[in-house]
Amino acid sequence: MKKIVSTITLLICLHQIQAQDTTHISLKKLLQQVETNYPSIIQYQYNIQSIQAKADGAKSWMPPTFSTGIMRFPYNFSMIKEKNDPMNQAGVAFSLEQMIPNTSKLNAKKSYISSLAEIEKSKSEWTKNELRREAKILYYNRYVNEKKQIILNESEEILQLLITTSEAKFSSNQSQLQTIYKAKARLAELNNMLLMLDGAIAESNIGLNILMVRDVNTIFQIDTLIAPVNYSFSIADTSNVSNRSDITALNKYIQSMKLEQKVMKVGVRPDFGVRAEHMQMFGMPNQWSVMGMMTLPIVPWAS
């Protein structure tokens, strides 16, 4: 019976240990999750896909138009039965029409729509950089605060030992009361600093969980083996400024405006079309016709 109770107790303890187990997240893994799961990035991806799909269909033609109907039917239907009568011009007409758009218009439209996708990509990269910056700040803040917490905990243990020793010596007049009070005041100050660090660490956890699109109360461990980097101050290299995502987005926006102007410029060019008709006549020989068409976008009422 004792063995069964011991086994059950051991299993309960192991279950509690597993329940308290936290996930270890390195900075690289954290940044990957932020870039993958953050809603703004996903929204940019869907916008890019929709614009690319629109660009793929920018060079599509209008579908052909088929029409049919009766023509030149007399009010006196008895005339329809008369053959070889010049007055019987009734018949059924079939027509097929196809507009042929101007190639320069299609190319300009596709280039303009594709430029919108490039703008969205640049905006997405700029947003990723902002999220990386925010994630790194929160991550390193937690790293520094945890290091401070370790040092303060060690100082608290040393100070608590000093207070205990001083109180023991005070009974034999080997310690001053002033020293004990100063140590206790310092201990209270350390406890206050520890509470502030706990709040700062919790704030970093909440911020990181929000960036990773997780429950804000999710507990995880960070990488404690981060190697400090000695950043040296130097004059900024202006040759790399043009590679910044925000500058790139602005340049692509300007290019898109130029392409939009080109779309408006080539919009005054005409489109062409062809129309073929066949007339099945009742009292006359069958007839057919082929006509070419051209739009006139330069008229004042054309939009």
Structure description:
The radius of gyration is 40 Å and the shape is rod-shaped. Strands 2-3-5-6 form a four-stranded antiparallel beta sheet, with no helix packed on it. A two-stranded parallel ribbon has the order 1-4. Helix 4 (103-170) packs antiparallel against helix 6 (245-266). The chain has a single domain (25-80, 88-224, 242-294), classed as Up-down Bundle (Outer membrane efflux proteins (OEP)), CATH 1.20.1600. Strand 5 and strand 6 (287-294) form a beta hairpin. It has helices at 2-19, 27-37, 39-56, 103-170, 177-211, 245-266; strands at residues 23-25, 65-71, 91-100, 220-222, 272-281, 287-294. With 303 residues, it is of the alpha+beta class.
List keywords for this structure.
4-stranded antiparallel sheet; Outer membrane efflux proteins (OEP); alpha+beta
Tally of alpha and pi helices:
6
Strand content: 5-15%
Radius of gyration: 40 Å
For the report, how would you describe the main beta sheet? 4 strands, antiparallel
The CATH first-level class comes to: Mainly Alpha
The CATH architecture can be named as Up-down Bundle
